[in-house]
Specification:
heterodimer; A: Rossmann fold; 5 strands; B: alpha+beta; Beta-Lactamase; Heat Shock Protein 90; 3 domains; five-stranded antiparallel beta sheet; disordered N terminus
C-alpha cells in the first residue's frame, strides 16, 4: 500500500476494543498519528487535550451516543472534520448524519482504503476551511 | 451524498420467515374475511328487506282486506236491495193491473144496460168493452144463483149452460167475505190454462156472479213489459210453488218452481243455485192474488259492478305492493351494497395496514440484526486488514506465524460472536416442542448460580444471598428455558455491579404464583431506559459484550409460561427483577396423584 508519512492526527472512537485497535494499527502503518478513545466521554476529553485534525466516530455507543459526541466535538472546535461509522443502514439515518454536518459516513464493516481516502479528503477540507478563515480574519 | 437502499436487507431473510407465526398476512385469510363480510351484509340485506316489506305491506294488506270485506258486504247488500226494489215495483204494477181488471168487470155489473137476463148481444158488447180495456180478456160469463152459466160471450160456446157450482173458484167466492176473486191458473172445462176474475153481486138475497177469464200468455207479455233491471227474470208462482206465469223458454204451467219462498218470511231476497248458476231472487206476495212474484237475477250480473270494482281494487293493490316492494328492495340493496363496499375497503385497508406494520417491524428487526452482525464483521475485516498489512513487505511488520495466528484467533472470536447472535435469533423464532416436567425452581436457581460462578461471576467479588422458600411448590415447566431466564437476569445483575456487590435471590409462593426476585446492588437502570430493556438488541453494555437479546428472550420465555417479569430500579442503588410464574393447578394435581 502507500506507506507515506501523513503526519496528522486522527482520533478513532469506538467501544469495540478489538475493532478499534485493529483499525488503529492499520491507520498507523499508513502514516497517521492515531489517537483512540473507547467512549464518547473519552473522545471529548481527548479532543480537548490533544485536538486531532479528523475524528472517526462510531455512532452506536453505550453512554454518550455518537451524535452527542459529534456535537460536543464541534463545540470545542468547529473545524475538526468528523467521519461517522454506523451500523444503521437506514436512509433516514444517513440523511440525519449529513444534515448534522458530519463530513461523511461509512457503514460497518469498513474497507480500510475507503476510510483512508475519506480521512484524507476530510483533512484537505479542514485545511481549506482553516485557510479561508485565516483570509477572512485578515 | 450516498444513499442506501434498505430493501436488500430483507432479501437475505427467507420469505417464510419474514413474518412471525402470530400475525401472518395470509391472502387466504383475507379472502375468508371478505366472504364473511359479504355473508354478513347479505344477511343484513335479507333481514332489512323482509322487515321493511313486512312492516309496510302487512298493515296495508290487513287494512285492504278489511275494506275489501266491508266493501263486498255493502255491495252484496246493495245488489239485494236493488233487486228487492225491482220486485216491489213490479208487484205494485201487477196489483194495479189486476185491480184495474176487477174494476173493469165491476163496471159491467153496474152499467145501466146490465140486466139479470143478459142477451147474447149484450154479452158480446160486454166482452168487446172488456177487450177494449185489456186484450188479455178471453171471455166473459154470467152465473145465476145456482152456479149455472146462463150467459156467455167468448170462443168457448160449449161452456154456456154449464154448472160451475162445484168449481173451486165459484165456491171460494161464494164463501169469501170479499166481493171478488182472482183464481190460480187452471185448465177448467176448456182444458186450456187460464185464470179467472170473478165478482159477486147480491140481488134480492140471490148471489149472482160475473166472471171473465184471462190468457196467462198475455199476462206474461205484460210481465215482460214491466220488467226492469239487467237480466232480471220475473215469474209468478202460487202458494204451492206452481208456476202461474213463467217464461215459456224456462218452464210452463203446471211445473213447480226451483225456488220456493220460505213460509216464515213472505218477502225477502235470497241466493239460490239454478242450473249450476248462482241466482239472486227477490220474492214478494201479490196482494190481490195468493201468488208470489219472483224476480231473479244471476249473482254475477247483480254483483257485476262490485266484482269489477273489486278487481280494480285488487289489481291496484297488487301493483302498489309490487312497486313498494321493488322500491324497498332496490333502495336497500343499494344502501347495503354501498355499506358492504365500504366495509370491504376498510377490511382491505386494515389488512394492508397490518401487513405494512409487519413489514415495518421486520425492517426494524433486520436493522437490529444488521447492526449486531456488522460489529463482528467490522472486527473480522479490520483484523484481516491487519494480517494483510503484516504480509505487506512495504510496512515491514512482524509477520511471523505466531503473530498471524494471534490475529486469526481474533477473527475466529468475532465470527463466533456473529454465530452466537444468529443462533439466539433462531432460538427466538423456533417453536419448541415442549418437554414439560415438574421443576423445583429453587434447585434450578442453585444450578444456574453454580455454573455462573465458574465463569461470569468469577472475576468480581459478588456475594450471593439466598432467601429461598423451603415449601415452594414445584411447577410444571420446561427446565432449560427457565434456566436461561434465570441465567440472563443473573448475568445482567452481575454486569450491573462494577466490582463488589451483592445479588440476593428470593423465592416465595403467593396463591397460584411463584415469585422469583433477583436483586442486585448495581448501577441501576436510568428511567428513560426502563421501557426499552425488553426490546430486542437494546443494550447498554459496551465493547461487544451484550447482544441486547438476553432480557428479550427471558421475557418471551416467561410470557410463554403464562407469567410476567416486573422490574424495579433505582439508579445508583440497584435493580430488582421479579419473575412471576403461575403454578398450574391441574398439573399440581397430576403430580400429587403421580406421587401417591
Amino acid at each position: 500500500m502507500d506507506k507515506k508519512q501523513r503526519e496528522f492526527k486522527v482520533l478513532l472512537v469506538d467501544d469495540e476494543d478489538i475493532f478499534r485497535e485493529a483499525t488503529a494499527r492499520q491507520l498507523s502503518v499508513r502514516g497517521f498519528i492515531v489517537l483512540t478513545a473507547d467512549s464518547g466521554e473519552a473522545a471529548v476529553e481527548s479532543v480537548k487535550n490533544d485536538p486531532p485534525e479528523v475524528v472517526v466516530l462510531d455512532q452506536q455507543m453505550p453512554g454518550m451516543h455518537g451524535s452527542d459526541t459529534f456535537i460536543a466535538i464541534k463545540k470545542i472546535d468547529p473545524l475538526i472534520e468528523v467521519i461517522m461509522l454506523t451500523g444503521n443502514t437506514s436512509v433516514d439515518n444517513a440523511i440525519e448524519l449529513m444534515q448534522m454536518g458530519t463530513f461523511d459516513y461509512l457503514m460497518k464493516p469498513i474497507n480500510i482504503d475507503e476510510l483512508l481516502y475519506k480521512i484524507e479528503d476530510a483533512y484537505t477540507r479542514k485545511k481549506l476551511n482553516e485557510k479561508q478563515q485565516r483570509e477572512a480574519g485578515q | 451524498m450516498r444513499v442506501w437502499d434498505t430493501s436488500h436487507l430483507l432479501d437475505d431473510i427467507p420469505a417464510h420467515k419474514q413474518a412471525s407465526a402470530e400475525h401472518v398476512y395470509d391472502p387466504a385469510d383475507s379472502q375468508a374475511n371478505l366472504y364473511r363480510i359479504r355473508f354478513h351484509f347479505k344477511q343484513l340485506q335479507a333481514r332489512l328487506i323482509l322487515g321493511l316489506v313486512l312492516g309496510f305491506l302487512l298493515p296495508n294488506a290487513l287494512l285492504s282486506a278489511y275494506f275489501h270485506f266491508q266493501f263486498t258486504h255493502t255491495l252484496k247488500e246493495s245488489a239485494k236491495l236493488s233487486l228487492a226494489a225491482v220486485a216491489e215495483s213490479q208487484k205494485n204494477t201487477i196489483d194495479l193491473y189486476l185491480q184495474e181488471r176487477v174494476v173493469n168487470l165491476y163496471n159491467l155489473f153496474h152499467s145501466k144496460d146490465f140486466s139479470l137476463n143478459p142477451t147474447q148481444e149484450q154479452m158480446d158488447t160486454l166482452l168487446a168493452n172488456l177487450k177494449h180495456f185489456n186484450d188479455g180478456f178471453v171471455d166473459v160469463g154470467f152465473f145465476d144463483p145456482k152456479g149455472v152459466q146462463i150467459a156467455y160471450a167468448g170462443p168457448f160456446h160449449a161452456l154456456l149452460g154449464m154448472d160451475y157450482s162445484h168449481e173451486s173458484w165459484y165456491r171460494n167466492l161464494l164463501e169469501d167475505h170479499r166481493n171478488y176473486l182472482i183464481s190460480d191458473i187452471y185448465l177448467g172445462f176448456r182444458k186450456i190454462p187460464h185464470f179467472t176474475i170473478a165478482i159477486k153481486q147480491v140481488f134480492d138475497n140471490q148471489t149472482y156472479m160475473m166472471r171473465a177469464s184471462l190468457d196467462p200468455d198475455k199476462f206474461y207479455i205484460f210481465l215482460r213489459a214491466i220488467s226492469q233491471g239487467k237480466e232480471v227474470e220475473s215469474t209468478l208462482i202460487n202458494h204451492e210453488g206452481i208456476y202461474q206465469v213463467v217464461d215459456p223458454g224456462r218452464s210452463q204451467f203446471p211445473n213447480r218452481s226451483d225456488f220456493i219462498p220460505p213460509t216464515a218470511s213472505p218477502a225477502g231476497v235470497e241466493e239460490f243455485e239454478r242450473d249450476d248458476q248462482k241466482m239472486l231472487v227477490a220474492f214478494t206476495p201479490i196482494k190481490e192474488t195468493p201468488w208470489t212474484l219472483l224476480a231473479m237475477q244471476p249473482v254475477s250480473v247483480a254483483q257485476a259492478g262490485m266484482i269489477k270494482a273489486r278487481l280494480v281494487l285488487t289489481i291496484s293493490l297488487v301493483v302498489i305492493s309490487l312497486l313498494l316492494s321493488a322500491i324497498i328492495f332496490f333502495t336497500i340493496k343499494r344502501l347495503v351494497d354501498r355499506a358492504r363496499r365500504m366495509a370491504e375497503k376498510g377490511q382491505q385497508l386494515q389488512e394492508m395496514l397490518a401487513h405494512a406494520s409487519k413489514l415495518a417491524s421486520i425492517g426494524e428487526l433486520a436493522a437490529g440484526v444488521a447492526h449486531e452482525i456488522n460489529n463482528p464483521l467490522a472486527i473480522i475485516m479490520a483484523t484481516s486488514g491487519v494480517i494483510r498489512d503484516m504480509l505487506n513487505p512495504e510496512f515491514e511488520l512482524d509477520h511471523s506465524p505466531e503473530a498471524i495466528y494471534k490475529e486469526l484467533s481474533v477473527i475466529d472470536t468475532a465470527a463466533n460472536r456473529a454465530k452466537g447472535i444468529t443462533r439466539k435469533l433462531q432460538d427466538m423464532g423456533k417453536s419448541r416442542v415442549p418437554s414439560v416436567v415438574e421443576c423445583d425452581v429453587n434447585a434450578l436457581l442453585g444450578e444456574v448460580v453454580a455454573s455462573l460462578k465458574k465463569v461470569e461471576l468469577k472475576p468480581k467479588h459478588i456475594e450471593i444471598a439466598n432467601n429461598l422458600a423451603s415449601d415452594l411448590p414445584r411447577i410444571f415447566a420446561e427446565p432449560e428455558p427457565l434456566r436461561q431466564v434465570f441465567a440472563n437476569i443473573l448475568i445482567n445483575a452481575s454486569d450491573a455491579i462494577d466490582d463488589k456487590g451483592t445479588i440476593s435471590i428470593t423465592t416465595e409462593a403467593k396463591e397460584d404464583t411463584i415469585l422469583v426476585t433477583i436483586t442486585d446492588s448495581g448501577r441501576g437502570i436510568p428511567p428513560e431506559n426502563l421501557p426499552r430493556i425488553f426490546n430486542p438488541f437494546f443494550t447498554t453494555k459496551g465493547g461487544g459484550r451484550g447482544t441486547g437479546l438476553g432480557l428479550s428472550i427471558a421475557a418471551s420465555i416467561v410470557k410463554y409460561l403464562g407469567g410476567v417479569i416486573r422490574v424495579n430500579s433505582i439508579p445508583g442503588t440497584g435493580s430488582s427483577f421479579t419473575i412471576l410464574l403461575p403454578i398450574n393447578a391441574q398439573a399440581q394435581k397430576t403430580i400429587k396423584q403421580h406421587d401417591k
